[in-house]
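User: Here's a structure from my thesis project, written as structure tokens. My advisor, Dr. K., wants to see whether a designed sequence matches the one we expressed. Can you design one independently, without my sequence as a hint?
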């Protein structure tokens, strides 16, 4: 009888063993037999790079741990490098060294890809390396592969959605339980949703990085995080949330990537890529995206409107996306092939926020006297902003005016708000919020 031949496996260097990395290691361990069957050869952990060797790590063989990540990624016996450290350095240096040394690479690092994708994607092209990064946007949701592969023959004109789990969790807790911002953020951190520095989440940097990656893939044009107009949720108050509720809306942090058509129709004047909190009607599907879930609409010429929904953050959901990429690069390795290569051939300018067409909800505390409405209306007219609806409420100290505008350039809307602040009949601009996904003319 012939002895059973043991197939040579593929060896994986795992960089980072925190919220995501520890789940990647667990799934590789617990699903080893299934993964082998799907790839055709076994996957084996060659080593795990971490910052602190003395940290307790359940289920991890301490002999695998090292603080010398650079030596690990360039080791001859390593085939695939999975980077879940995060941040710019040393992640960039490690990925570049890995690709140069002929390794295939999987990363969840949106910050790096959005800030310096050109260098990382350039290295993948130069060294012929596989580079997969599904987990970088929207956690478990398969979104980048559809954009990179399934929709690459179509013409995508809009990507709109909720791409940050932490902020969605906070806004949802404020809306449904009247929770305070700080307490909701602490919960999101405990649940493993937040970035190492949660400023990245609450100030919109994380969503902006994801928007840049989405815009680049959708429109095949160069977009970095610095190009994205970004506003976070730290200024969202309980009054904003209540105001939204009163008009049948909810506040969500949205990422919006749009082609802006030029006079020639399709060619495009450029792209608008932006992240900000906005009111959306409760009837809109994005309004029912709760907790740390994410949802993204992709609108394409032939495919129409597609909605992607699922867990947007957390160790296990994100590890699922990483494992999907790991299997893909491993299969490529086995058959000697390679996955898609990023190409940005279109040179569409990223338009300034002031030129973007939006709508505003504005809540004003006003003097309780006649002529107030006329003076406010005049300020809108002065900036050529048309009013869609106005309502007056309260008396005396509680006199309030709520105005919802028609669509207008953001610069004109912002100038109107500044003008309103200068009127002596306006005691306070209590709330200003953009209105999205509400096409009421
Ligand atoms: N958490 C989430 O829900 C999601 C995260 N991501 C992305 O995944 C990546 C990882 O996130 P997450 O797991 O939450 O982060 P964590 O902060 O939980 O884990 C980071 C890991 O990297 C290790 N590390 C940090 N610096 C170094 C270094 N210089 N050398 C070697 N190892 C280092 C840490 O080591 P030690 O354990 O010793 O501290 C830790 O194990 C990030 O890019 C993040 O944006 C993407 C989608 C969702
Ligand atoms: N901090 C991020 C994690 C996933 O990308 C989030 O909250 O969405």
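Assistant: Designed independently from the structure alone:
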């Amino acid at each position: 009888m012939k002895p059973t031949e043991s197939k040579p496996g593929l060896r994986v260097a795992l960089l980072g063993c925190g919220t995501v990395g520890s789940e990647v290691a667990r799934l590789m361990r617990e699903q080893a037999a299934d993964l082998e069957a799907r790839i055709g050869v076994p996957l084996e952990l060659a080593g795990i790079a971490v910052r602190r060797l003395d940290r307790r790590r359940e289920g991890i063989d301490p002999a695998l741990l090292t603080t010398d990540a650079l030596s690990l990624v360039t080791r001859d016996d390593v085939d695939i490098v999975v980077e879940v450290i995060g941040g710019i350095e040393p992640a960039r240096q490690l990925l570049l060294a890995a690709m140069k040394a002929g390794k295939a690479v999987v990363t969840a690092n949106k910050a790096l890809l959005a800030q310096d994708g050109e260098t990382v994607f350039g290295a993948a092209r130069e060294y012929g390396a596989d580079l997969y990064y599904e987990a970088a946007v929207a956690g478990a949701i398969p979104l980048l592969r559809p954009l990179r592969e399934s929709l690459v023959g179509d013409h995508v004109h809009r990507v709109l959605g909720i791409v940050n789990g932490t902020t969605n969790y906070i806004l949802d807790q404020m809306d449904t339980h009247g929770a305070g911002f700080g307490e909701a953020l602490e919960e999101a951190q405990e649940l493993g949703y937040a970035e190492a520095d949660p400023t990245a989440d609450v100030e919109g940097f994380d969503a902006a990085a994801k928007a840049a990656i989405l815009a680049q893939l959708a429109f095949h044009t160069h977009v970095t995080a610095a190009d994205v107009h970004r506003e976070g949720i730290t200024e969202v108050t309980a009054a904003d949330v209540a105001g939204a509720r009163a008009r049948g809306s909810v506040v969500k942090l949205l990422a919006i990537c749009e082609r802006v058509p030029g006079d020639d129709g399709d060619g495009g004047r450029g792209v608008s890529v932006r992240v900000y909190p906005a009111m959306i009607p409760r009837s809109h599907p994005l309004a029912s995206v709760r907790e740390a879930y994410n949802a993204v609409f992709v609108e394409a010429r032939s495919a129409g409107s597609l909605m992607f929904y699922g867990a947007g953050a957390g160790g296990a959901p994100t590890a699922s996306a990483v494992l999907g990429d790991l299997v893909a690069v491993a299969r490529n390795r086995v058959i000697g092939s390679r996955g898609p290569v990023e190409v940005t051939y279109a040179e569409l300018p990223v338009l300034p926020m002031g030129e973007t067409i939006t709508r505003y909800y504005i809540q004003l505390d006003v003097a309780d006297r006649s002529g107030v409405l006329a003076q406010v209306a005049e300020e809108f007219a002065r900036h050529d902003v048309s009013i869609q609806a106005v309502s007056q409420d309260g008396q005396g100290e509680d006199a309030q005016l709520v105005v919802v505008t028609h669509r207008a350039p953001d610069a004109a809307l912002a100038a109107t708000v500044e003008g309103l602040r200068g009127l002596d009949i306006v005691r306070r601009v209590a709330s200003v919020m953009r209105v999205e996904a509400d096409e009421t003319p």
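When you compare it with your expressed construct, this may help: The mean pLDDT is 95.
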